[in-house]
Design brief:
Elements lengths: L1 H16 L9 H25 L4 H8 L1 H14 L5 H14 L1
């Protein structure tokens, strides 16, 4: 499951990045990218372990907390506070999953 997700992200990133002009990141940016990649890998691995051997209906509702965590992380990272449209879009997604 982790490999399939990583493969899909890599393939779509490669396809979308072909039309971009690229430059090498600096040391600070490269370090931040590496730390972000480690967190993504750790999070993906923990999600796989969470879904292993239990009923999906027990663990799946916790995935919807990603909306809240994304909003919280976006404030310091991008200086943006989620607006009403974010909540408006999240409600039908969470409702359909529950």
């Amino acid at each position: 499951m982790s490999f399939a997700g990583a493969l899909a992200a890599t393939g779509s990133g490669l396809a979308l990045g072909l039309n971009e002009s690229w430059r090498l990141p600096g040391v600070v940016a490269a370090s931040l990218i590496a730390v972000a990649a480690l967190f993504v890998a750790l999070g993906t691995d923990l999600m796989v372990h969470a879904f292993h051997g239990v009923d999906i209906s027990i663990v799946a509702p916790f995935c919807y907390t990603l909306f809240a965590w994304g909003g919280i992380a976006g404030c310091p990272a991008f200086g943006k506070v989620p607006d009403g449209w974010s909540g408006f879009g999240a409600v039908p997604i969470v409702a359909s999953g529950l």
